[in-house]
Design goal:
CATH topology of the largest domain: Rossmann fold
CATH architecture of the largest domain: 3-Layer(aba) Sandwich
Strand content: 15-25%
Number of domains: 2
Helix content: 40-55%
Shape: globular
Distance between the termini: 26 Å
Length: 217
């Protein structure tokens, strides 16, 4: 018997919740194990069920989706959090990525892309709604005010390492993928980040989105 991906749903709008339920229920490899209509209920539910993926409305009452993601990063780090949102601006997405969210999707995209995004996230990827990536991440600002929008200065190995890092893989996992040591991964990652003028993983993810590195996740 194939293992099914266990999912929890959290949204305070019954119609939205029902729509998500129908999308997921149609897939043989996905299983909804619990639902909640507010942030505190979602937190307790996720603690109890320990799902593979938690799909959460960013604007949940009592505890919003980003605050919930921060709590789960400490209390249930194996749970992959995906946020559903109406917000398309840079500030919300940056907060979500900094909180460790693995997926960020506009509600209007759910019918077309939710199942694809879940499957990408469950194998270790990171999903950012293409509509947001194209509108928000058309450049990555450097500290000096210029924009870094090319990876021509990167070597092939630096590019491979940074792509995997942007998708959320650890240095050890990247080393295993590329058949190199962890120290080499650290070196390639550091050199690549320096060439691109990037300082944090959130900046790397934004750059990766601009370069469409995550488009096949």
């Amino acid at each position: 018997m194939n293992t099914r991906t266990r999912i929890t749903l959290s949204d305070d709008h019954p119609i939205v919740l029902g729509g998500l339920r129908n999308l997921i229920a149609a897939e043989d490899d996905l299983e909804i194990v619990a639902e909640a209509s507010d942030g505190i209920g979602a937190l307790n539910m996720i603690r109890e069920k320990q799902p593979d993926v938690a799909i959460v409305d960013i604007s949940m009452p009592q505890l919003n989706g980003i605050a919930l993601a921060r709590r789960l990063a400490d209390e249930a780090p194996t749970v992959r959090v995906m946020l559903l949102t109406l917000h398309e601006d840079r500030a919300f997405l940056k907060q979500a990525l900094d909180a460790g969210v693995r997926g960020y999707m506009l509600k209007r995209s759910a019918a077309e892309s939710l199942v694809h995004a879940i499957r990408g996230v469950i194998v270790g990827g990171l999903y950012v709604d293409p509509a947001i990536a194209s509108r928000v991440f058309n450049s990555t600002p450097r500290r000096d005010g210029r924009s870094t929008i090319t990876n021509e200065s990167l070597t092939g190995r630096e590019t491979d390492v940074l792509k995997s890092a942007a998708m959320g893989f650890t240095n050890k996992e990247i080393g295993n993928q590329l058949d190199i040591g962890v120290k080499s991964v650290e070196t390639y990652r550091s050199r690549g980040m320096e060439k691109l003028g990037l300082k944090t993983r959130a900046e790397l993810v934004r750059y990766a989105s601009a370069q469409e590195w995550l488009s096949d996740v």
